[in-house]
User: Which sequence fits this backbone?
């Protein structure tokens, strides 16, 4: 075990998989000599050579499309979007080609798209988005969103080994602010299993990505009997764990940084409203970004993204219900 | 480029070494083109009988392109075949029964009813099924070629697209990336004068083959109604790619002789244009050439036609006997349990008949068992 | 008033607006001389000239981008996607440029994207999709989905007159199968107002697009006291009408043809679970397509898309709850 | 094209009619370039002082391009200005206080804190703010040009993009559509040798200016460090577009003299390359030319520099005095209540000074009231 930041854990996970399996390679903009916009692949070109850490032109459909073809031919490509926001430029290849090939043609497409996502650092409307819900409306894509360094490493390894296209949402706000014990060497965390990040009996906060540390901080600060469920995988969704916790506490707050309408929070709320209705002791609430583009200036951005105080307030309200 | 330029189509830009094609090869070329024509005619009549759900598309008049291009490929080369290119499926070993069953949404169609039209690729034969969004498969072909290049394998990926699709940004991304990486990929552009109803002059202000140089790759223009010209150009491009020389864009000038789909009466196509190209029918003109230039007897040519018709007829019976899929299949298969390699396709060209001709370095991958109606019926 | 099909009503609405305001023009693939894949603009090129019924190359980002620029310059462009599915190829211009310009820059972008959507006719995985939920996760886009011919005309007119980008989902299955009385001449239906398509007291079916006639047919067939609320607008969503009906009946089924995860149904369910919790007499249920690509062959497609029997069954279950 | 080709940059492809520029114009060109340089230096130091949230980008070394290009435009022409093109904003009338306030996320920045960096366009001055996704604005510029063409207005849309962005499919869609429709649009390509860390040879296998013909439009290559060469080429392209001659692609060869952003130490740039281009600094070399060729006195040139520095200093004070926006503003403005026209920009070139020079047919649209810090402070 070593203490690593979330960012270091991603690098470590990727490097470990590249050492383990020579069909694993990376492609993206500025990931080679430069090591990527966030330096996730710093030193990789030296260790693995420029062919396995491929600098592409500025063309996201070309990146996802090349990964799809290479995956079909037995490689294990890991694409980097420079920012998650740019997936809109590679959207068609992802949702129409990669996502549907197995269903239509029995063709496995083992690729990973790494998506540095999220805001909180004045990235503005084009460097702060959380696009995960788009992927859930495109059947055939798996979607993961780790909240801890250990999960970041373990889920990335599982994503790489999975025979399907996996969208790997790595939250930029966690890159250097989250640090925890990460197993050394090969390490996987299964896709599709949520994690009880904090046990509690009165209220469940269901969260993923950057909302997990926020929920934990709120629970600590309030000193209440709050359970925090970290989803880890958004597709497949761990419906069992969600329903078990909802039934246990009877009160649920779902929190994420993505905008609200048709977000993952809506799906989880709908699931609970349909399947755990009889066990609910209060309304199902959501804490999410407002339905606006993410603004640049700090006071504006803070108004839009969920803050610790908002989380505490939302918990308090539900506990008092 | 205006419509009337269609008559100014260039001849083969790559001279064919006559020794490349044996007499048997030539018979095969005619046979595959005929098979495409006859199978599509049969499919169209099934469509008119209400046996094909959805819509219907064919490649009438463009048979020389898919057949000539696919004929140049080795078993371990890989293809993304498009909606006008049925002949390439046949060259790789897909049988007409599975094509017809696919159109009818039957369990024995290549996709088992999951997808329709020519939206299929037979995994067992080294093909990846196209998506509707055009020309997305060009980027997928790039990716396959990238894998081949990374592993140092002397293999090639080939894909097709229409001239209308070259207007889409993905076409540009594909050309540019292939040019930079010098990928072993061959792009076969079928300029059939229209994208749905849209004529060339609304698709581009300069013919796309003129763009090849701007991507650092050669562009070759051929008569897409001359199967040997297509074979020669694609063969040269494939050899170049296989030898590490990078990608080639081969533009085949042709004409879409039917509507965009069976629902389209082509009111927008000047009748003279159709007549002009009808006179250059790729099958008729190749049959004539086999008689005149290559010493085929009339009976030989007629026998090919008769045999193909009989065979397609049997295939249609098998396809019609195939059941509709079980509804429960609809909910299966979104995710894969494991990756499996594509199988190798048939490579009927005599150039691949002798083991010595095969690239020595190519390790053989066993094809996954591909469903065929024959197997099922047996 | 005249009886028009849904398709005729769309043509009529578009023609009326083009006659009313010469800044309105259409652009898309094969919409000119050919009149469009579904013939919505048949005869338009003759009446308005090829410049106002502009045949574009096969390039969806170019279509949406050109519309955005023209809208900024005071035109009122109406884009046609040949099929809604192709919006994935114009996605970036829509969600990143058009949607965000007003928020970021105070720049109004009055454009409409017409999206022939939906399945049920063996269109297969690329000609059957219902992409509306993607747009709800892209703040700045309005989204409408009419279910009747009159609404198709009136909502299209409102969409054209609206100073924002509007995604207009026209369901292909309704094109020729729905026919109703449509006011002649200029006619608008306001964006953001739901419609009670059938009054009832025991169960609310909330639906839009192709699910509305399905819900009405089920209600008739069951002869039960079912209310059918036709959303018409998905963004803005008529939350008042939704909550009012949910509170009145206490039981809600949300139905749409789009796939389930993070769909509009999830959003509506989450809204009700949060705001009408105390008035609910049963779980909030959804009837949607399964989370798979839409298959081609009729028995498969029927398995995936909601059918009348599924609707009846879902209503019966909730009524019996 | 390799890195070392950078030294082989061509001269102005369009010879400048010397009468086009008056002595006062030349002073203005120097003044705007200096203003861009000084304002960016000031912004960078604000960034280093922690007053700029997020990240920081500038266009050091590229000042001649945005200034020279924007200088050729009339008030009613329209622009989409990119992240290296601050000078164009200044030419159109945006003042440095509003630029600096925007970078600091203040209420008086052009976007009022909604967006940062150079992601702004001043509506009152005929500009549409860029988005990050590159080169999306090329398609928006097409749309503006389409509207102008449809209405028969003798107006032009102009946009910029880097050479790296030409790899994206949207670039191709923009060129192709502009070529087919012969839109009155001018595309200014800034080849500054890198896209972030990616050098030309990984961006394309053939220089993008060579692609212009493949879209049926002229491509012109100029020395992007020579402001008069840029002006001449863009002026010719604008006149051509205004007269109905269609689009032009103008490639300006230059060098990005800073990192991609302030966080980037440019470890990947060979020092010789920087030194080579440093010697060709667009401002230094233009100042020298004004002295040598155009009879400017040293004091004149020095006064421009001093005045600009003083002015930018005052602007920085005003920007620093501007408050942060009210949080509640974050939840407003997703949707518009009504459409309003863009206003007309400043057009400081003497060619626009006389009313007779203005296109007769251009109806005047009143500019919407644009916020300025001056107004607020007054
Ligand atoms: C991205 C995209 N937009 C729209 C369509 C709808 N569409 C299907 S085929 C077609 C015309 C294609 O023309 P071309 O590429 O010339 O091929 P052809 O059909 O002529 O062989 C169009 C517009 C599509 N398939 N993909
Ligand atoms: C579609 C897209 N993908 C990725 C990025 C991230 N990115 C920002 S600037 C940049 C390099 C742009 O290079 P170039 O077009 O040459 O412009 P320059 O910055 O050199 O002026 C990249 C990759 C982007 N802005 N847009
Ligand atoms: Mg065509
Ligand atoms: Mg650059």
Assistant:
């Amino acid at each position: 075990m070593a203490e690593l930041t979330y960012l270091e854990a991603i690098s470590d996970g990727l490097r470990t998989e590249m050492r383990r399996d020579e069909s694993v390679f990376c492609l993206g903009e500025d990931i080679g000599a430069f090591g990527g916009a966030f330096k996730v692949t710093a030193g990789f070109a030296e260790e693995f050579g420029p062919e396995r850490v491929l600098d592409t032109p500025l063309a996201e459909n070309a990146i996802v499309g090349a990964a799809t073809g290479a995956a079909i031919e037995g490689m294990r490509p890991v694409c980097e979007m420079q920012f998650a926001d740019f997936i809109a430029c590679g959207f068609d290849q992802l949702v129409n080609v990669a996502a549907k090939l197995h269903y239509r043609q029995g063709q496995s497409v083992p690729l990973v798209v790494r998506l540095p996502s999220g805001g909180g650092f004045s990235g503005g409307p084009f460097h702060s988005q959380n696009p995960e819900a788009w992927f859930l409306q495109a059947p055939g894509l798996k979607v993961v969103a780790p909240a801890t360094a250990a999960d970041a490493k373990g889920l990335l390894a599982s994503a790489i080994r999975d025979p399907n296209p996996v969208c790997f949402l790595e939250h930029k706000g966690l890159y250097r602010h989250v640090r925890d014990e990460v197993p050394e060497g090969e390490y996987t965390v299964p896709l599709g299993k949520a994690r009880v990040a904090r046990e509690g009996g009165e209220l469940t906060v269901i969260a993923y990505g950057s909302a997990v540390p926020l929920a934990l901080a709120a629970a600590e600060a309030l000193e209440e009997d709050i359970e925090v469920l970290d989803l880890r995988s958004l597709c497949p969704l761990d419906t069992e764990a969600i329903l078990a916790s909802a039934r246990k506490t009877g009160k649920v707050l779902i929190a994420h940084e993505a905008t609200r309408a048709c977000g993952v929070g809506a799906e989880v709320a709908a699931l609970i409203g349909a399947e755990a209705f009889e066990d609910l002791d209060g309304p199902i609430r959501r804490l999410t970004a407002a339905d606006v583009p993410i603004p640049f200036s700090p006071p504006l951005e803070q108004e839009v993204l969920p803050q610790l105080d908002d989380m505490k307030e939302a918990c308090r309200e539900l506990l008092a219900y | 480029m205006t419509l009337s330029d269609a008559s100014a189509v260039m001849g083969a830009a790559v001279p064919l070494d006559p020794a490349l094609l044996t007499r048997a090869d030539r018979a095969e070329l005619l046979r595959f083109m005929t098979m495409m024509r006859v199978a599509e005619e049969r499919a169209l009549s099934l469509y008119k009988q209400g046996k094909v759900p959805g819509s219907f598309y064919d490649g009438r008049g463009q048979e020389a392109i898919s057949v000539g291009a696919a004929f140049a490929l080795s078993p371990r080369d890989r293809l993304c075949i498009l909606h006008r290119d049925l002949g390439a499926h046949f060259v790789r070993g897909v049988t007409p029964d599975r094509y017809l069953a696919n159109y009818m949404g039957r369990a024995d169609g290549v996709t088992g009813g999951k997808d329709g039209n020519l939206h299929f690729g037979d995994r067992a034969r080294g093909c990846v099924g196209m998506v509707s969004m055009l020309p997305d498969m060009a980027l997928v072909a790039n990716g396959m070629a990238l894998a081949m290049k990374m592993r140092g394998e002397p293999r090639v990926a080939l894909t097709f697209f229409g001239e209308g699709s070259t207007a889409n940004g993905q076409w540009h991304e594909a050309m540019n990336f292939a040019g930079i990486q010098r990928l072993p990929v061959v792009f076969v552009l079928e300029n059939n004068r229209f994208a749905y109803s849209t004529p060339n002059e609304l698709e581009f202000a300069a013919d796309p083959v003129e763009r090849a140089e701007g991507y650092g790759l050669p562009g070759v223009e051929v008569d897409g109604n001359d199967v040997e010209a297509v074979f020669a150009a694609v063969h040269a491009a494939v050899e170049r790619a296989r030898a590490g020389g990078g990608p080639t864009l081969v533009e085949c000038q042709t004409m879409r002789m039917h509507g965009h789909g069976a629902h389209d009466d082509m009111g927008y196509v000047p009748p003279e244009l159709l007549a002009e190209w009808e006179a250059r029918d790729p099958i008729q003109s190749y049959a004539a050439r086999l008689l005149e230039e290559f010493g085929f007897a009339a009976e030989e040519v007629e026998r090919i036609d008769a045999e193909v018709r009989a065979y397609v007829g049997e295939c249609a019976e098998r396809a019609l006997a195939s059941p509709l899929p079980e509804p429960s299949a609809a909910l299966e298969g979104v995710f894969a349990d494991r990756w499996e390699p594509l199988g190798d396709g048939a490579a009927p060209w005599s150039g691949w008949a002798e083991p010595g001709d095969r690239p020595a370095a190519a390790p053989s991958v066993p094809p996954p068992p591909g469903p065929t109606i024959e197997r099922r019926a047996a």
